[in-house]
Amino acid sequence: MNVRTTLFRRIRLIAIILLAIVLVPYGFSRVASSWRRLSVHTSRDLPAGKRDNGTFRIACYNIAHGRGLATSNWRGGTAEERNTRLRQIADLLRHIDADIVVLNEVDFDSSWSSSTNQARYLAKQAGYPYWAEQRNLDFRVLTWKWRFGNAVLSRYPIVQASVVDLPGFSAVETFFAGKKRILNCTIELNGDKVRVLAVHLCLRKSHPPIPGPQLSRAISTLARQDSQIQNQTQLGVTRWIYLTRLPCFSVSQNSLSARLQN
Question: pTM for the full model?
């Protein structure tokens, strides 16, 4: 065996080892993403909600991975700076006193946010004993992880949760990284069941937006699955880029019950 053959075999072995180091964690992360896509959690340390005035409050907040006003997730500051923002968001959620909070762009285990599960942190710090997590992107390359999506925090039990597929930007991206989806939660609210949909849509210059008819079909499918929801199902989508506004409103439970029973 000559020197050239020996060198070639060593180089090939090193290449195989390096390739395995990269591909094995990535491959496992993509396989595991299917069963990590949705999870529902309960904290027994926090009291459940109870309102006596017949209304409940619901809010929607795009927390933008806790990066603040930075233009890139990797430029969101140190771990302590990000934790400070999360504490401020938790303080704000306690202040507005919403019963249900929809969160967008939430990190569950991403490298740029020091692998903090932001949904769990905000739920416990803001006083929400029930929360659901839904991952849009879930993959790992070496030690870097991208795992984020939508979340719903609730003071009332989340009795059912599912994921609704949306069209991906491309089949390649969907296969290798993931895509946008809808988190569909059913919440039991003082005897009534309320359905909450969490979705975050974004635009790319190189791709057209998701067509409205496809969104309508996805929502209509949910409506047909629930005998309590009538055919008049509407989806309002508001895209908040920066953490400067927090839409929050109150809903009359009596009006909701009347509509569900009609």
Answer: 0.78
